[in-house]
Design a protein that fits this description.
heterodimer; A: mainly alpha; two-stranded antiparallel ribbon; 13 helices; 6 strands; 5% strand; globular; B: mainly alpha; 76% helix
């Protein structure tokens, strides 16, 4: 089993023991079985939590692994959603499918991130400057979409603060017929993409490129002295983050068939930062779990009182930063790793 | 006559934008310049000043100027508590302090929403309009412009001519040396943070009669403050003044030609272009003056 997953293992991810993989596939199996147990409506509700994970992973790559704190992931997520909305609405009438729209959405947000990244990293901006620039970009985008009441592109109306409606669902051309994804098929589509992304990232962070990313995080100057072009590296990482967030945004738009500006507001922009902080920024799995749990809990509390949910998030954020520097999941992992040490010889402490 | 009208409206737009940019940024710039820490709750600190002013004006019935001063005390106290409980543990982790203060920002926005609802009664703008022919603009705009310069000078005075300022600059230059020469650097940081919060509060008070009093009004200030600080760089006063002036011209003209949003978007584009040419902001061109 371990040889099969060797390309995805290394010191830069947690979980390579036999116990881990058994647990991992058990969870995946549960996730895959969920629609059969819960029915279509709950599956529809559940899908969005997996979509948020793309947003979480985009920040994990940028901040967690490369040390670039970006507050702009929801800008790419939102831009991806709107881009998919505009492209999908227009293209679905011509081609009858939305696969191209999703593809172009991902390319578009990648390019957006690359351009912004070029100006920042080739200007040698780092640290808090990157954070405030990306946040300013996010807030200005929110302002733009809020003001865009009258704006229509082709058949798509952006809708201003009321949001963009009637965004088409994922439709694929299969031979001669087109298949529009329903609640359950869309769930499997999202889970499938998520697994691909997760394994691709596990692979990426354990390649030479991944080591260079971590080199930048740990010591920029040293990595540069070793001969790496850290400007280009940061640009690439930022573009990957833009692609992941854009993919998430595209999926989100077709999931709810709706996009609105608050997704780029200051409260939403904080979400990925919270997930990654709480989940543990130096792991992939931590932010995934944190995004899922925190977002689910947040929504449950929001049913009762939306403000409490946000206030609780704020408190969790401050407490994590102050008392659990490396995040909750790595602490948990360390704790269980120590407990299982005697039972499982291959278990290793990787933090 | 039409030409003079155009000239006047452009001039007013630029002055009003200058006041807004400089006033939004000053508290943030003081804390960032002296401590290297970005307070992401800065917009909400200004908002606390707005709420403090509006509350003491409406509920207690204080005269406006007094209400503004009382309003400024609210974020000062919050700033003090925040510094003592959170920020002081994060001096060496600037990005983490941003994340933590973001938490504060979220708590403040939602707290205000829970306490006072989606909007609170505003305050009427003092003074009337000034008229030149068919052109008219509120006198208060020019008052704000004057106060923006006044507050910059006040901050300059504090850092250049007071005992605290001397010790603060020493701490900035070389914390260890200052500390071993008997400067209580910890207390300097706390005082600097409270000063920055107080300035944010004053600005909130000044804008209380201009903006609508809403829990999410802080993000307007925070965009302006960020952009001004990015372009201004680490040099607190000259940087803020210069970048405020340059950006005000850009935003004022953009807003007059196309619209408010266009002006705001131009600001951001200008900021991104500036960092490509001069990553340290316009401070690069000033050199060391302190």
């Amino acid at each position: 089993m371990s040889s099969l997953f060797e390309p995805f293992e290394g010191p830069n991810v947690i979980g390579e023991s036999r116990t881990f993989w058994v647990g991992f596939w058990a969870v995946v199996a549960l996730v895959l079985l969920y629609p059969l147990i819960a029915g279509a409506y709950s599956t529809l509700q559940m899908t969005v939590y997996f979509i948020w994970i793309f947003l979480a992973l985009s920040l994990t790559v940028i901040w967690g692994y490369s040390g670039i704190l970006s507050f702009g992931q929801t800008a790419f997520f939102g831009a991806g959603g709107y881009l998919f909305g505009v492209l999908g609405t227009n293209l679905v009438q011509i081609t009858g499918e939305t696969a191209i729209a999703l593809l172009v959405t991902v390319l578009g947000t990648t390019l957006f991130a690359a351009v912004l990244g070029y100006f920042m990293f080739y200007g040698r901006v780092s640290g808090v400057y990157v954070a405030i620039i990306t946040l300013a970009v996010t807030l200005v985008l929110e302002l733009f979409f809020t003001r865009s009441t009258e704006l229509t592109i082709g058949n798509a109306t952006l809708g201003g603060y009321q949001g963009m409606t009637n965004i088409p669902r994922q439709t694929f051309e299969l031979g001669v017929t087109n298949i529009t994804l329903g609640p359950v098929t869309r769930y499997y589509f999202v889970i499938g993409l998520l697994l691909v992304v997760y394994f691709a990232l596990r692979y990426l962070v354990n390649t030479d490129f991944g080591y260079a990313m971590i080199g930048v995080r740990e010591d920029e100057d040293r990595t540069e002295m070793l001969g790496y072009d850290i400007r280009l590296l940061k640009l690439k990482v930022f573009a990957i983050g833009g692609a992941l967030a854009g993919l998430g945004g595209g999926l989100y738009a077709s999931w709810g068939q709706f996009m609105s500006p608050p997704i780029m507001g200051i409260a939403s922009a904080a979400l990925p930062v919270i997930w990654v902080t709480v989940g543990g920024r130096k792991t992939l799995l931590g932010p995934i779990v944190a995004a899922f749990i925190l977002q689910y809990l947040g929504d449950q509390i929001a049913l009762y009182q939306a403000s409490f949910s946000v206030i609780l998030t704020g408190i969790i954020l401050i407490v994590t930063i102050l008392y659990m520097d490396s995040g909750a999941i790595p602490n948990l992992e360390r704790y269980t790793a120590e407990r299982f040490k005697n039972r499982d010889a291959t278990e290793e402490e990787t933090a | 006559m039409a030409f003079i009208n155009t000239l006047l409206s452009y001039g007013t737009a630029i002055l009003s934008s200058f006041a807004f940019l400089v006033l939004s940024a000053i508290g943030l710039a003081v804390i960032f310049g002296m401590m290297g820490i970005i307070n992401l709750a800065h917009g909400e600190f200004i908002l606390l000043g707005v709420y403090g002013t509006a509350l003491s004006y409406h509920e207690i019935g204080l005269p406006l100027v007094l209400a503004m001063l009382v309003g400024a005390l609210v974020p000062s106290v919050v700033g003090w508590v925040l510094e003592r409980t959170v920020i002081q543990h994060l001096y060496t982790r600037p990005t983490d302090s941003m994340v933590a203060t973001w938490g504060v920002s979220l708590i403040t926005i939602e707290g205000l929403l829970l306490l006072f609802g989606p909007s609170y009664p505003g305050i009427q703008r003092p003074f009337g309009p000034v008229r030149v022919g068919t052109f008219s603009a509120p006198i208060y705009t020019f008052v704000l412009m004057g106060l923006a310069v006044g507050i910059l000078l006040f901050t300059y005075y504090i850092f250049m001519y007071t005992e605290f300022g001397l010790r603060a600059r020493a701490t900035l230059q070389n914390e260890e040396a200052a500390h071993s020469l008997g400067v209580d650097t910890q207390s300097i940081y706390t005082k600097t943070f409270v000063l920055g919060s107080f300035l944010a509060g004053i600005v909130g008070g000044l804008y209380a009669p201009v903006i609508s009093v809403e829990p999410n009004a802080g993000s307007r200030f925070v965009i302006a403050a960020f952009v001004t600080v990015i372009v201004g760089g680490a040099n607190v006063l000259m940087g803020t003044f210069l970048s405020g002036s340059i950006l005000a011209v850009i935003e004022g003209i953009g807003a007059q030609l196309v619209g408010t949003f266009f002006g705001r978007a131009l600001l951001l584009i200008a900021a991104i272009l500036v960092i490509r040419i001069a990553p340290q902001g316009v401070s690069t061109f000033i050199g060391e003056y302190e």
